[in-house]
Design a protein that fits this description.
Strand content: 15-25%
Order of helices and strands: EHEEHEHEHEHEEHEEHEHH
Structural class: alpha/beta
Distance between the termini: 37 Å
Radius of gyration: 19 Å
CATH topology: Rossmann fold
CATH architecture: 3-Layer(aba) Sandwich
Shape: globular
CATH superfamily: NAD(P)-binding Rossmann-like Domain
Low-confidence stretches: none
Helix content: 25-40%
Bound molecules: NADP nicotinamide-adenine-dinucleotide phosphate
Largest sheet: 7 strands, parallel
CATH class: Alpha Beta
Length: 253
């Protein structure tokens, strides 16, 4: 069984490579930039925007874990049209594993709409698949909201809810799906706790012994409302074990 990991230089891609390097799987990896460490993996260049290199990437692999994504730049082309071309070149694939995001069908955010469209393309293709939606990664929430205090204040929409999960646990879950075979739409993979962003900021201040304060703001609009309502969470599927506090503590060890 040969696995292709796309998005090899990304957060999820790197976590996948880190775990696959000690496995018995034959692994091929792809991205536009070459990862600094490729280990014994074969790396090939491919670009979902120009569609260059796709054939070479999917050639002679059985399973794809698709961790390539472009949320901001050219997202429509990468997430949907490039993805469609990618699927077109992959009729021989026995199992296509697509990491997605909890709540994308309910949250009015353009990138999420595109990912939902991509889920539909995969479902309607003839390729056996597993779609597994995860909640936001710990580092993603931290980088987005809690990395740049302004005049010693984290200015955050403190009442929105998050159920962040450790990327390494999600990576290991995706790898476990390889042997399980195609599951269709699998259970969501949520983090262990649902917290407000204010609570997460408080934890960061406590764990890092910071003197920063929190300024919680409310925002207008449906996007804010859907995160306030926790549409990005799943109260039943709390598969992740590593808490946000443990993630923060591990960083300073
Ligand atoms: N971040 C989260 O909190 C979160 C939560 C749940 C699910 N997910 C899902 O997990 C997956 C991976 O997310 P991530 O956070 O690991 O993303 P990331 O860190 O932004 O990595 C994106 C990867 O995609 C590659 N890429 C970007 N543009 C490309 C293009 N035009 N052609 C080919 N490759 C391209 C990048 O490498 P190069 O630039 O070198 O090509 C990089 O390796 C996504 O499907 C995302 O929706 C993310």
């Amino acid at each position: 069984m040969r696995i292709l990991v796309t998005g090899a230089t990304g957060q999820l891609g790197s976590a996948l490579l880190n775990q696959l390097k000690d496995s018995d799987y034959k692994v091929k990896i792809t991205s536009r930039r070459k990862p600094e460490e490729t280990g014994h993996f074969e790396w090939v260049y491919s670009d979902l925007l120009s569609c260059e290199g796709i054939e070479e990437a999917v050639n002679d692999v059985d399973v794809i874990i698709h961790a390539a994504t472009s949320p901001i730049k050219n997202s429509k082309n990468v997430e949907v049209s490039g993805f469609e071309e990618f699927l077109r070149k992959s009729p021989h694939i026995k199992h296509f594993i697509y990491p997605s995001i909890v709540g994308i069908d309910e949250i009015p955010f353009n990138y999420y709409k595109l990912k939902y469209e991509a889920e539909g393309l995969l479902k309607n293709s003839s390729i056996p698949y597993t779609i597994v939606r995860a909640t936001q990664f710990h580092h993603f929430v931290e980088n987005l909201f809690l990395s740049k205090p302004f005049f010693k204040r984290y200015i955050v929409p403190g009442n929105i809810k998050c159920q962040s999960v450790d990327v390494s646990e999600f990576a290991s879950h995706l790898i476990s799906l390889v042997d399980k075979g195609p599951q269709g739409r699998a259970n969501d993979f949520g983090g262990p706790d649902i917290m407000t962003l204010r609570e997460m900021a408080e934890l960061k201040i406590k764990v890092n012994n910071e003197t920063n304060k929190i300024l919680s703001i409310s925002l207008p609009g449906k996007l804010y409302r859907s995160f306030f309502d926790g549409k990005n969470t799943n109260t039943i599927q709390k598969a992740g074990k590593i808490t946000f506090e443990e993630y923060l503590s591990n960083k300073i060890e």
